[in-house]
Design brief:
325 residues, mainly alpha, Serine Threonine Protein Phosphatase 5, Tetratricopeptide repeat, 3 domains, 18 helices, 2 strands
Length: 325
Amino acid sequence: MKQTPITCIDRDFYNLLHPGSSFEEARAILIGMYQEQDLDSEKATKLKIHLDHCACCTQFLGDLEKIGEFKTAQAMVPFAECPSSEAIDTYLFNRQLIPADRAGRIRMHLEECPLCKEEGSWLKNLEQGQALEFKPAPLRNWIQYASIAAAISFLVLSAVLWGQRTAVQVPDAQLRALASLEEPERLDFANLKQTSVPLSGGMEESYLKAVRLFKERKFRDASLQFEELLQAKPDHSASVFLLGYCYYEMGQPEKAFDLCDRAESIHPHSYTRCMSLVQIALKTGHFGRAVREITVLYHEAPQIPEVRELYQQITSLTRGRTLKM
């Protein structure tokens, strides 16, 4: 049986406190500032209330707190961030451009952090023209996001160099080939129901009838049943999602993508809906949406093999590309 990961109970919470950023960035920034006691009292109070009720974000905070401390020549200095990919690249190939104390910290971090060590190995092999699977480092903390503006010129130069080294882009067909949708009858219907709003007696019967038709692959009949139910309960995420699945099976993949995307925007989130959205996004060429969704899943449940493998495959094929959402 697949393990159902815990997810944030209210991803919009972070965007409201830190507008203009994605959920992942906003959460990393706010929890990083909360850990460093740099949030104003009002935001800190709101975040504490959220953490008291959200196991996922409490775990995220705990992961930050577990990051080790690294020695410098002067004292023990908390190293609550991974060096950026650009910093690692510069350390490996142009170390003279980095101050000695910063280079020493990066060296110690590479010795302790398996993800950054793997990234360093990947960069070295890339420089030598060898292929090596790479798992990106975890989300950077708020300090790095705050320094982005000052590093624009360096990032532009890095992007040019990166483009020269990765000039050959993988055809979209290989991304589409990664998609592997579950057979309709094998979906986790219990997870779908658990993450949907409750239905009254009559609507519950209609939903169960629609699900039965869906499992029997009578997608046209099932879609009519789901559409009728959604007229009365438009926020029933399981029905929205399964209706999208019906349209996919009926040969209307774009409509299926729109409905599955809509279903995943309804809280609380569902592992089944999320993984299926990744697959349908790949099938329909919405690669940017697939990247965003699999990134969320990976950072919330890296222990699930299928999530980890798909994340690595998608990110390796899309690195450096402009993608359709």
